[in-house]
Amino acid sequence: MHVFDRFRLDGRRLFITGGSRGLGREMALAIAQAGADVVLVGRDQESLARTAGEIAGLGRQADTLVADVGQPAEAEAACREALSRWGCFDILINNVGGRRIDIPTQDLPTEKWQAILDLNLTSTFICTRLLGGAMVARGQGGRVINVASISGLVANRGIGGRSYETSKAAVIAFTRATAADWAPHRVTVNAICPGGFMTEPNQRWASQNPEIIDTFKKQIPAGEFGQPEDLGPLAVYLACDASRYMTGASLVIDGGYTLW
Fold first, then answer.
1. Residue 252 Cα distances to 14, 96, 115, 143, angstroms
2. Element (DSSP H or E) covering residue 89
3. Which residues pair with residue 189 across a beta bridge?
4. 59 burial type by CB count under 10 A (0-12 exposed, 13-18 middle, 19+ buried)
């Protein structure tokens, strides 16, 4: 077998949350280019349809589910509908997430704290339990990829909403624990920890907090923010046979920001 053949994903199917925009869109497109069919999950039908059209243009099947997986009941319903319609998936990417708030800990209401934990952590748990659990039950292996953050490793400067750091750190811990449990079933569970990427939410943060964003950029040894398409090749690697012996890893992609 040629080494590049191990990166092919022909005949496999991906379920990705938050798959219509930003980092999710780029990972979905990259995995489709490697040969997989894709089910995109998100809140906005228009952006889902747009990304699905791009995937279809690559010659792959692209389906969509409208759901806010930050709401536990909607996350569970979306996963159960997906299993009913398409059967077991080969690849799961838990990508949906965000900070969304800038509130100091001493002023942070419990309900806002819980909402961010549900968005970043509970959604990952529910989709992993249902779709990853189906991989275990099927007995043919599988790939679970959790999008964590360097914020699960370090605290962001000058911004509140520490529910984000907490939830992303928990995603990393959940990744490691689940990887240990599921390794005998040939289901790998790995995390990607992006640093600064100028996605739409971060562009909004930049417009509202230009000094914080400028300071962040100056602390990156590579001297620039990442581009969403930088995540595509890493997602393909974690989804394919080339990474069959890697599990429980948290792969940092941040231009060196966390090296200081």
1. 22, 18, 25, 18
2. none
3. 144
4. exposed
Question: Span 250-255, mean pLDDT?
Answer: 98
Q: Does residue 164 have an active-site annotation?
A: yes
pLDDT given at position 199: 78
- Yes or no: say if 89 and 143 are a contact pair by the CB < 8 Å rule: no
Based on the number of CB atoms within 10 Å of its own CB, is 119 exposed (0-12), middle (13-18) or buried (19 or more)?
buried
| pTM check: above 0.90 | yes
pLDDT digits (tens, 9 = 90+) for 35-85: 999 999 999 999 999 999 999 999 999 999 999 999 999 999 999 999 999
pLDDT at 42: 97
Digit-coded pLDDT (tens) for 175-199: 999 999 999 999 999 999 999 998 7
CA gap 110, 122 in Å, rounded: 16
Q: What angle do CA 144, 21, 253 make, to 5 degrees?
A: 55
What is the distance in angstroms between the CA of the first residue and the CA of the last residue of the chain? 41
Catalytic option among 164, 237, 245, 257: 164
Domains and CATH numbers, the chain: 3-246 (3.40.50.720)
Quick check: 250 and 191 in contact, CB under 8 A? yes
List helix spans (H) across the chain. 22-33, 45-57, 72-86, 110-117, 123-127, 133-138, 163-182, 200-208, 210-218, 231-239
Which residues fall within 8 angstroms of residue 245, CB to CB, at 6 or more apart?
Answer: none
